[in-house]
Amino acid sequence: MKLILLVLTVTLPLAQVIRVMKCWGKLGRCRIMCEESEVFYILCNAAVKCCVNPKYVPIDTRSSNSTRSL
Fold first, then answer.
1. What span, in angstroms and rounded, lies between the C-alpha atoms of 30 and 58?
2. Domain limits of the chain?
3. For 9-56, how does the pLDDT look when each residue is reduced to its tens digit (9 = 90+)?
4. For residues 26-55, b (16+ Cβ closer than 10 Å) or e, as one string?
5. At 51, is the secondary structure helix, strand, or coil?
6. Signal peptide location in the record (predicted)?
7. What is the distance between the alpha carbons of residues 7 and 59, in angstroms, rounded to a whole number?
8. CA gap 28, 65 in Å, rounded
9. CA 63 → CA 23, 67, 68, distances in Å?
10. Contact 42, 30 (CB under 8 A)
């Protein structure tokens, strides 16, 4: 009986965890503040940002190649 009570005590709070809103094609997470390893690229809504790992953010290659001559 004590074992069942212990298992329920541990698993019930885990089952009530709020789901995280995904963004950027499920590669980002909606948060109020991004972690240091993430970048803010778009808004999820008015209060939160879409925090994405920099390796998934596209790079604008036209501006870096503007000095190249034809």
1. 18
2. 27-58
3. 877 776 666 667 888 888 888 988 889 988 887 888 888 888 998 888
4. eebbbbeebeeebbebeebeeebbbbbeee
5. strand
6. 1-17
7. 48
8. 28
9. 26, 9, 10
10. no
Contact criterion met (CB below 8 Å) for 32 and 40:
no
Q: Encode 7-39 in three state secondary structure.
A: HHHHHHHHHCCCCCCEECCCCEEEECCCCCCCE
> Beta strands 39-43 and 49-52: pairing type?
antiparallel
**Cα(17)–Cα(48) distance, rounded to whole angstroms?**
19
**pTM for this prediction:** 0.53
Indicate the residue type of 52.
V
How far, in Å, are 24, 30, 45, 54 from residue 8 at the CA level? 36, 30, 36, 40
